UniProtKB/TrEMBL annotation, chains A, B:
Species of origin: Streptomyces nodosus
Signal among keywords: no
CDD domains for the chain: HTH_ARSR
Keywords noted in UniProt: DNA-binding, Transcription, Transcription regulation
SUPFAM superfamilies found in the cross-reference section: Winged helix' DNA-binding domain (SSF46785)
Organism phylogeny: Bacteria, Bacillati, Actinomycetota, Actinomycetes, Kitasatosporales
Taxonomic superkingdom: Bacteria
Name this polypeptide is given: Transcriptional regulator
């Protein structure tokens, strides 16, 4: 699968930020288009629940077989939502035998968090 | 205008967080539905540009008359996008004479940032 969309957030930014912060300067059209794709991927309750199930899992990864029973949705529908999260660079996956295993990509989540954050707090990276 | 949707983020949370953090515990259906509305509001390039123009403005507020010239869109279309941002609790506004003035609501932005952030850094609130 193409990972073209994984690079949308300006990964060369040394500060780990994506684009200028929201309170720093107005976004240009390209930056806004790229970020909007990511927020759109988050703008669905099923995808948010899937992402939180994956991101909060101790051990860091989840078998798709553990995700689908939580939803009253078909496997193809769940797979479609997972694909959109993956295309946005929010999760990644690997097939092992019968099952596909998913994990969150914290760099993307943290870049979005840094973009949204308005209060400039003193902060030390752990 | 109803501000019903402004309370979706669990403002009673003393930590200023909205719901559990994404990496903390899976969201329940209600939490996911509420957060998805907010991310959906951010999931459009025009709305993201409007929000960044408003949030980054020195002085804290922007006349709608300064927003519309930046877009090749009709005034009603801009107003519609602003309304969606307002319904999500991301901005608020006030009419003064001829014009409407907009400002960002940092509490909502910071709650979303806290929700997305995966790295638990030592942090002191300024």
């Amino acid at each position: 699968m193409s990972k073209q969309e994984l690079v949308v957030l300006g990964q060369s930014d040394e500060n780990g930020g994506c684009c200028p912060g929201l309170v720093t300067t107005p976004l240009d059209e390209d930056q806004a288009a790229e970020l909007a794709k990511l927020f759109k991927a988050l703008g669905d309750p099923v995808r948010l629940r899937l992402l939180s199930m994956i991101a909060s899992r101790a051990g860091g990864e989840v078998c798709v077989c553990d995700l689908t029973p939580a939803f009253d949705l078909s496997q193809p529908t769940i797979s479609h939502h997972l694909k959109l999260l993956r295309q946005a660079g929010l999760i990644d996956c690997e097939r092992r035998g019968t099952w596909v295993y998913y994990w969150a990509l914290p760099a993307t989540l943290d870049r979005l968090a840094a973009f949204l954050k308005t209060s400039q707090t003193a902060e030390t990276t752990a």
